[in-house]
Amino acid sequence: xxxxxxxxxxxxxxxxxxxxxxxxxxxxxxxxxxxxxxxxxxxxxxxxxxxxxxxxxxxxxxxxxxxxxxxxxxxxxxxxxxxxxxxxxxxxxxxxxxxxxxxxxxxxxxxxxxxxxxxxxxxxxxxxxxxxxxxxxxxxxxxxxxxxxxxxxxxxxxxxxxxxxxxxxxxxxxxxxxxxxxxxxxxxxxxxxxxxxxxxxxxxxxxxxxxxxxxxxxxxxxxxxxxxxxxxxxxxxxxxxxxxxxxxxxxxxxxxxxxxxxxxxxxxxxxxxxxxxxxxxxxxxxxxxxxxxxxxxxxxxxxxxxxxxxxxxxxxxxxxxxxxxxxxxxxxxxxxxxxxxxx
Length: 343
Fold this sequence. Notes:
The protein has helices at 2-15, 20-51, 58-68, 81-96, 160-180, 200-211, 246-254, 263-267, 276-283, 313-332, and strands at 100-101, 107-112, 115-124, 134-141, 146-151, 154-157, 186-192, 215-222, 236-238, 259-260, 287-291. The chain is α/β, with parallel strands linked by helices. The protein folds into 2 domains: 1-51; 57-332, Aminopeptidase (3-Layer(aba) Sandwich).
């Protein structure tokens, strides 16, 4: 970002001089510089993605979803034995693929309205000595609402879509980056507890990172991606679409329309109803959520019917793979290209 600022400042100085031609040329140089950075990183991301020999597989996605949304976990309510089992499952997976704890352990402990609980937080260190102290955070919440009113003999709100689907995406992306080791910036992989109680886990982590003065570039939450969108020309929508240029930059890295605008997301203020809001409010960075729940394609939000049988495994797998080039671009750009828009 510093390089871009320098170009713009030089353009301003030249504009104060007598030569109108020099002012126009400086403006073109700044614009071209930004375009070149985006294009270079898009090319790098595509090359990395094409080189992967083992992309995310449907069998792995299904296996994780079947466990996290199983009756054994009893709806993963914060503070429950089911959530504890889910946490152990995620932490063990991170350990299996040498994803290091961000803190002293995988646990980021806090209390959710007096209930002891914790986020699971891992990290894949960046490869660039100048950029590895900057971070991109990928998150999802692994808690749900537990046991609710019985419907036809079933009282377990399994939360397959909300948000086991996003949790699986973060797990698979963590494995991917741990294996390819091409991210220049470091990536934090965070699974939040207490989301259903008011974003409590993400609020805790955001404040902890702020207190530790962590240089967090962007945050992307993955929420409810279990079924495809209906009649849309993009893969997922981005909450707070108009608050930053994340969607346009992400799409340029991806060479396609991956993230789009959903009017209902703005109408219902979904930006403030997911974990991304915690990081936006605490750190004033581009922090947004992507989702494919478009209010027409899934009838079981916070109901016992949110089960594995409703999930479209090929869609989830394809979407996770589709996200890789955009995330590669965010982690590999020389400058902070993704920025908040002026209010």
